[in-house]
């Protein structure tokens, strides 16, 4: 037999939740502006190009730079597909959630397909350079989010 713990106070009474007024909501929106998903995609593309250039210049081997560029492209192209899909969605919260999962699945499938095709598309493929391009490009997403205006930096 299950026993339910008695409530000493109602949850509503315990909660510190206070709805914002229209003015407070407007101030919050000004302090926390929306980040354009396209800005993040372009930032990733720029970082991917820089990484491939650095890999090429440091190694002196063009095929390593191409491998790093393909790794970055394996992140940027699916991210652009995801951004386009999410930017077009409209409707209810349930539809938005379904769209999010659907486009995320498409992004993963495209990334895996691009990685599977890499050995056939790139002669002299360097998996290490490809992974460097991918990882650095993926991590720029977090940098772009942290660098946006209105984000409080930890002290």
From TrEMBL:
Q: Where in the cell is it found?
A: Cell membrane
Can you tell me where the transmembrane regions are? 37-58, 64-83, 95-118, 124-147
Whether Cell membrane counts among this entry's keywords is: yes
Query: Where is this protein chiefly located?
Result: membrane
Please list which residues make up the signal peptide. none
Metal-binding found in the keyword field: no
Q: So which domain of life are we looking at?
A: Bacteria
One Pfam match: ATP-synt_I
Note the topology in the membrane. Answer: Multi-pass membrane protein
Keywords in UniProt for this one? Cell membrane, Membrane, Transmembrane, Transmembrane helix
Name of the protein this chain belongs to: ATP synthase protein I
Q: Which organism does this sequence originate in?
A: Paracidovorax wautersii
């Amino acid at each position: 037999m299950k026993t339910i713990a008695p409530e000493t106070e109602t949850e509503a009474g315990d909660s510190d939740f206070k709805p914002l007024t229209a003015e407070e909501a407007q101030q919050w929106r000004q302090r926390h502006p929306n980040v354009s998903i396209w800005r993040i995609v372009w930032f990733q593309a720029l970082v991917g190009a820089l990484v491939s250039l650095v890999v090429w210049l440091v190694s002196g081997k063009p095929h390593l730079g191409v491998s790093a560029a393909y790794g970055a492209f394996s992140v940027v192209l699916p991210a652009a597909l995801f951004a386009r899909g999410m930017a077009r969605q409209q409707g209810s919260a349930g539809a938005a959630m379904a769209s999010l999962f659907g486009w995320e699945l498409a992004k993963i499938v495209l990334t895996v397909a691009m990685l599977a095709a890499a050995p056939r598309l790139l002669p002299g493929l360097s998996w290490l350079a490809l992974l460097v391009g991918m990882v650095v490009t993926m991590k720029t997403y977090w940098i772009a989010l942290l660098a946006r205006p209105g984000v409080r930096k930890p002290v």
